Q: What sequence folds into this?
């Protein structure tokens, strides 16, 4: 009883939160003098906090997750129906929604056939790292064990995921890290590392240079985000992906695309890699898969990779000896099936392309007006505006000024994001990733608030 009354008393909820909850990615000293934000309700693209303030959420649940928007009763119903029938059984067995979702998912992913379930993006990526290591042990005599990753990309929060992370403010102080993860340069042309015409090809050639330095027979895989998200919204330049694909083929390197952010429509296609004609060996996904209505992540791969784990049934060590307890929860695939149905039936991918274009145009117009915007970029409904103190030198604005822009948008009832504890000195890119249901008015409201915020902070 007491608990239920407590739930209805939001003042008490805020106090309980302040007293006992350790928030993600938050310096708690601030909560000694200000209330922690507690979000209590959501509908469509909007949320309400414990004080009753309404916001338009331009970051889909803070971290680009709630692709189909809040308050979807059909997903809640699908999850409820599934839970009362069969909530859980370990993933060594199958489940009805697990089988049906895998079948539906691979219809959108030509060339890929197998889905391995777990429940966070970090975990989905770690599954690939384990598969690559096991392939090395069983099929390459212990060679090809290294995994390349790119500067500025992020693949998760666990120790091995951080070892493969190109964002030093996320990994700093959490080492030592496991061996065998090797960094390649990022491909952000705005922050040029080579003065050439064909920047995309040149940035990809930098990967080949690392492979040759390390020795091609030591490198088993490369993990890349299709569009780098939290590392500054980086859309790879023309020619980049074609060359990456060639390099992988040339040196027999497995290509792992991390779609944790871009997957499920966010970038204006079912998956970001499909915008570039890439043929990956592994695709990982999490956030938008069930839009946050249930925890689910997937590691998807080819029959060629899958076969390497069943080639010798007489060897008790030959198969993928891995388990994710909650990868057996049926709520994830049940929610994911309905989530996919919504994206299809409401043509949310078409809407994402159209609204993404509108948003990019609006941001470009803001760039004409505010010289603090040095660059705008993005794909679909994942967009960024990089703030600089000087357009000539491209010196980033002070982090606290970028944070002030976010706060000024919040004051107007618009939640936007900014690259956060990501790259030392470069937490200066505003991020937008509204739900894929966003309307033209929503987009204009979001960019309108940014206009006002930039004027308030920079004049
Ligand atoms: C590209 C990318 N990969 C992986 C992850 C990790 O996902 P999770 O937080 O679910 O472990 C994230 C999280 O932001 C991400 O942005």
A:
């Amino acid at each position: 009883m007491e608990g239920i009354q407590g739930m209805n008393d939001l003042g008490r909820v805020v106090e309980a939160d302040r007293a006992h909850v350790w928030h993600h990615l938050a310096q708690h000293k601030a909560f000694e003098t200000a209330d922690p934000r507690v979000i209590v309700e959501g509908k469509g693209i909007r949320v309400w906090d414990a004080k009753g303030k309404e916001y338009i959420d331009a970051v889909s649940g803070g971290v680009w997750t709630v692709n189909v928007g809040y308050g979807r009763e059909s997903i809640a119903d699908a999850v409820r129906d599934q839970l009362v029938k069969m909530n859980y059984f370990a993933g060594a067995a199958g489940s009805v929604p697990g089988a049906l979702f895998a079948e539906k998912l691979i219809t959108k992913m030509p060339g890929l056939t197998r889905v391995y379930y777990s429940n966070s993006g970090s975990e989905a990526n770690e599954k690939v790292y384990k598969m690559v290591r096991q392939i090395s042990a069983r099929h390459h005599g212990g060679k090809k064990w290294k995994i390349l990753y790119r500067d500025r990309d992020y693949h998760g929060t666990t120790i091995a995921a951080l070892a493969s992370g190109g964002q030093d403010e996320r990994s700093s102080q959490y080492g030592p890290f496991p061996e065998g993860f090797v960094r390649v340069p990022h491909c952000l042309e705005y922050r040029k590392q080579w003065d050439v015409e064909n920047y995309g090809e040149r940035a990809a050639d930098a990967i080949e240079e690392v492979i040759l330095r390390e020795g091609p027979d030591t490198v088993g895989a490369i993990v890349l985000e299709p569009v780098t998200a939290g590392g500054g919204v980086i859309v790879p330049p023309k020619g980049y992906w074609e060359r990456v694909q060639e390099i992988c083929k040339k040196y027999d390197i497995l290509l792992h695309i991390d779609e944790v952010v871009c997957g499920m429509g966010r970038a204006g296609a079912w998956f970001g890699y499909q915008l570039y004609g890439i043929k990956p060996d592994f695709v990982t996904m999490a956030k938008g898969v069930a839009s946050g209505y249930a925890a689910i992540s997937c590691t998807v791969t080819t029959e060629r990779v899958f076969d390497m784990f069943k080639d010798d049934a007489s060897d008790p060590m030959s198969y993928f000896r891995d388990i994710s307890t909650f990868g057996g929860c049926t709520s994830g695939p049940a929610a994911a099936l309905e989530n996919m149905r919504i994206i299809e039936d409401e043509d949310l991918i078409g809407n994402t392309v159209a609204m993404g274009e509108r948003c990019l145009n609006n941001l470009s117009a803001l760039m004409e007006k505010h010289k603090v915007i040095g660059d705008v970029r993005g794909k679909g409904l994942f967009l960024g505006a990089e703030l600089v103190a000087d357009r000539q030198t491209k010196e980033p604005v002070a982090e606290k000024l970028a944070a002030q822009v976010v706060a000024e948008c919040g004051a107007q009832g618009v939640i936007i994001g900014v690259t956060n504890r990501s790259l030392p000195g470069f937490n200066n890119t505003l991020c937008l990733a509204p739900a894929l249901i966003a309307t033209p008015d929503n987009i204009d409201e979001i960019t309108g608030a940014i206009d006002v915020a930039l004027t308030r902070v920079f004049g």
